[in-house]
Amino acid sequence: MFLRRVLMYDFSKVEEKWQQYYSENHPFEVDLEDAQKPFYNLMMFPYPSASGLHIGNMYSFIGADVYGRFMRLKGYDVFEPIGFDAFGIHSENYALRVGRHPAELTPESIEYFREKQLKKIGAIYDWRSEVITSSPEYYKWTQWIFVKLFNAGLAEKRLSRVNWCPNCKTVLADEQVIEGKCERCDYSVTKKETSQWFFKITKYAERLLKNLEELDWTEITKSIQRSWIGKSSGATIKFAVENSSLELDVFTTRPDTIYGVTYLVVAPEFGGLDSIVKKDRVDEFRAFTQDVEKMDIATRTSIKREKRGIFTGSYARHPLTGERLEVWVADYVLAEYGTGAVMAVPAHDERDYDFARKYGLPIRKVIECEDSELPYTGYGKMINSGEHTGTQSEYFIDHVDEIHSSMKKAVTYHLHDWCVSRQRYWGPPIPVIYCPKCGTVPVPEEQLPVLLPETDDYIPDGSGKSPLARNEEFLHTACPECGGNAERETDVNDNFLDSAWYFLRYISPKNENVPFDQELAKKWLPVDMYIGGNEHANLHLMYARFITMALHDMGYLEFEEPFESFRGHGLIVNEGQKMSKSKGNMINPISYFKTHGVDCLRTYLMFMGSFLEGGDFRDSGMDAVRRFLNRVWEVANYPEGKSSDNLKAKMAWVIERVDYAVKNIKYNTGVAALMEFVNDAAKEEHIEKELVLDLARLVSLFAPFLAEEIHSLKGGRGTILDSGFPSGYEEYAKAGSIEIPVQINGRIRGKIEAERGISEEEIMKLVKEADKLSNYLAEGKIRKVVFVKDKILNIVVS
RNA sequence: GCCGGGGUGGCGGAAUUGGCAGACGCUACGGACUUAAAAUCCGUUGGGACGAGGGUCUCGUGUGGGUUCAACUCCCAUCCCCGGCACCA
Predict the structure, then answer these.
(1) Cβ A754 vs Cβ A762: under 8 Å
(2) Predicted pLDDT of residue A62
(3) Shortest CA to C1' contact from A620: nucleotide
(4) A560 phi and psi angles, rounded to 5 deg
(5) Rounded-to-10 torsion of CA A264, A297, A337, A422
(6) What is the distance in angstroms measured between the alpha-carbon CA of A793 and the sugar C1' of B18?
(7) Strand B: which nucleotides have any atom within 7 A of a protein Cβ?
(8) Percent of chain A whose pLDDT exceeds 90
(9) What count of other Cβ atoms lies within 10 Å of the Cβ of residue A413?
(10) Protein-to-nucleotide distance from the CA of A491 to the C1' of B81, whole angstroms
(11) What is residue A798's predicted lDDT score, i.e. its pLDDT?
(12) A573 backbone dihedrals φ, ψ, rounded to 5°
């Protein structure tokens, strides 16, 4: 045993040196026009709302950057931009909380994020492409997109019962309501009827769903999108209402239970209800609907809550049997879904069953089952179904179009139109003008941007109107068409619109004439790899896809899907515990920059678990990675001299492992392979320069600064990423002997050392010569030999 | 309830997709160095049995079955955890 001198490297000095090198020499700027092998590597830009990037941001960015570095090392022109999602309710709420004006606070936050954090982490950003969504140069084009959507008939202002957060004092999209609570502040959301701008994303529901099949996205992300779109197939069935011109359309996924309908139910908010409520019941009906209205969404949609309803006094006719059916109003039917009315089949639907039992409504079995199974919701043989008795459910559903003129196949989606207006200050004003003569007029392109006024009067008042409505100077304007007095729309756009197209702006962030250069778009888009958290899998990705599709249909983009590949990564926990401010167990990345260094934090974040599934952060793991990096440095400083063939074979193996690990986003296994190599290399007395360089190249994905230092120590110039992905060890990988495990009757009984590529006959000969193994063979007759070349030998003996 | 992902040592996690389960790392223990500690280095570390010892045998990837020469991996059943959706008709 020989004692090795301890060689520690001064990470803070090394890191400072290369951070400075990166910021002075811009080695990662890409010539977008001339690049030969374009690769667009995208990560989710942060919103500069809090006191700095948190460890989750860091995790996400570094995971994406490792991929970008890998592609760069492979010789691609990797475009890795970054920016700031600086508008929106999170930034605004943060500003309100600390009592500063968002226009004043946001630039400060950005400055801090950029200079103190993002520029330190060793990412290969091209800072020339930075976009800030709150800058007029950017939101001019956000407004431009609004106008384009408006002109294409995809934006519409309509009266709607929308989600209202009494705390944030704004409307929320359905997507921002989580279990009846506001996504931002956790306050119980209520419904409020107001006039709002909507984007007609539902027009794209089928395409958004269908295209998922072709996308190279993590499965979990696709599944989240699918369930959000929520397609369901069935039929609409028309019921005529007695003594009324009203026809009730219901949507059902189970038209095969049509003979089991014993009453109809409509939602309390259903339009035209007044006409069917019998006069003697009007008061009772009013009281009931008002009561329902008052419920917050969490209560309304709670499954456990007992269903309530009242009979309207009207009857409808069953389209097939002519039977009279009571029409009820009940709080368990939602106006927003399907047609807002349902046919109740208590025997075969749990909700209808509960309701029918409570109010003594008839229950009629029409699908064969035991009485004890009611409500039976499975498919089966139709019974008590007139001429269709004996038909199978599935067959009836398939042929529903042929049964009766009142029944038609239909599809509904859970996806709702995207409510984009926000009654807040900190966002891009919606570029629309209301003229008493000309009506709703979009602001002409040449008048964009509609600047957000600089004002101290920006705090929301809960009136349901944006603070901008109080700004007389902003409010009053001239109609672009007739020049007469007109008023501006005072709501601002949802923050998700800002981020729905930022990846397009990155390729031409300074272009004043177009939102994005179409030639560059052809060359660089769609995005080759997008890595980010699954917490944005629903909203952000869906909206970005929608906007891209719409721009495609208008002829601005050749493709309709913005992100060819997407990888959603997991979350970090701290020592097995979820991080939260209230628990006080937040991990502060900056403090680790100081104690362990950026390289160490990067490498550890990638090593602590499977990136796609998230990981458990532990200080002891940080120390382990610091040891590893020190060993890399130590090995790099070994005297130069011939290395063993074994070590070169190991290098061949590591190269393959790292290649596989990065392509499959299994970074932890890549780091593990590098550790193995370093453990082996440390056992030798000296090392060849080329091996040191190749080690550094692979290490540079995770620990860039240390790698750059080693590269320059060994005489390299520029950034190590330009020196190419390691190769050239193939012959060592092929040479040498390997151990082949030998199984006898499925159990490992020994190992045979043999040349690579050995044949079955040869290895059997060696097995028979080996005492121990031949003893096992002697116990019986060889029935079968299974030999997988270079892998395993299994002999069946009986 | 439906849909997705998962369950592997004391712990974080590997196993390139049917081919040596537990790579790599942590922790713990033992040792070297040290006046001492830290740091560093070396060794041991899934359970059980046998052996003075090199070792040998055996059980083992939530649970119960199955397919196969061979199963963490595939099939059937079942339990649990995480995530998404959910009075969605």
Answers:
(1) yes
(2) 96
(3) B26
(4) -115, -5
(5) 150
(6) 14
(7) 2-5, 12-17, 19-21, 23-27, 39-42, 56-58, 69-71, 83-89
(8) 65
(9) 18
(10) 44
(11) 78
(12) -115, 160
User: Whole-angstrom distance between the N-terminal and C-terminal Cα of chain A?
Assistant: 49
pLDDT, one tens digit per residue, over A554-566 is 999 999 999 999 9
Instruction: Return mean pLDDT, chain A.
Output: 90
* Amino acid identity at A768: K
Place of tokens 């082996």: A680
Nearest to A782 by CA among A773, A791, A790: A773
**pLDDT exceeds 80 at position A80:** yes
Residue closest to A40 by CA, chosen among A530, A672, A537: A530
Ordered by where they begin, the domains of chain A are 31-133+500-569 (3.40.50.620), 142-200+417-496 (no CATH), 232-412 (3.90.740.10), 586-732 (1.10.730.10), 736-797 (3.10.20.590)
Query: Which of the four pLDDT bands, split at 50, 70 and 90, describes residue A273?
Result: confident
Banded pLDDT at A7 (limits 50, 70, 90): low
- CA of residue A790 to C1' of nucleotide B68, angstroms: 21
Contacts of A459 (CB under 8 A, 6+ apart): A96, A425, A467
What is the rounded distance in angstroms from the CA atom of residue A540 to the CA atom of residue A497?
Answer: 9
ipTM greater than 0.85, yes or no?
Answer: yes
A490: CB partners within 8 A, 6+ apart: A429, A465, A466, A468, A469, A471, A474, A475
3-class secondary structure for A606-644?
Answer: HHCCCCCCEEEECHHHHHHHHHHHHHHHHHHCCCECCCC
**pLDDT grade for A3, boundaries at 50, 70 and 90:** very low
A539-553 and A136-151 helices, crossing angle to 10°: 60
Q: Quick check: A305 pLDDT over 80?
A: no
Nearest to A662 by CA among A65, A45, A27: A65
d(CA A763, CA A752): 8
Model pLDDT, residue A1: 27
The predicted structure's pLDDT at residue A242: 87
